[in-house]
Amino acid sequence: MSTSPAPNSPGAEHPLPTTAQLRAAAETFALLASPVRLHLMWLITHGSYDVSTLATHVGISIATVSQHLTKLRLAGLITAHRHGRRTLYAVEDPHVITLIGQIFDHIAPDGSLAPDPPR
């Protein structure tokens, strides 16, 4: 006899995550745990930028920004496109854009949890 999951139990609306999904999600969150990489991600979700512009906005060296961008690109979180002599970095995955937007909607400017908007 098969029963469906209770309304609030795992699997009721979404299938349980696989081990591979859990591992990949943890690796993504670990990558985003760096304040510099999170700052870069926030900037790149709001437009395409070259490395020197990103370095200026974040206040660190071009070499350091390049290292962070390489990690983000290899993880598939950002893309790089040539535009003349410059390489522009962008976020094209709507899931990543939503993830970055949601975390900053959740955290107030003072670092506390942001209050929920009125319904």
From TrEMBL:
One of its GO terms (molecular function) is DNA-binding transcription factor activity. SMART domains: HTH_ARSR (SM00418). Keywords: DNA-binding, Transcription, Transcription regulation. The keyword Glycoprotein does not apply. Residues 17-111 form the HTH arsR-type domain. InterPro entries: ArsR-like_HTH, HTH_ArsR_DNA-bd_dom, Metal_resp_trans_reg, WH-like_DNA-bd_sf, WH_DNA-bd_sf. It holds the Pfam family HTH_5. PANTHER family: ARSENICAL RESISTANCE OPERON REPRESSOR ARSR-RELATED. NCBIfam families: HTH_metalloreg. This is ArsR family transcriptional regulator.
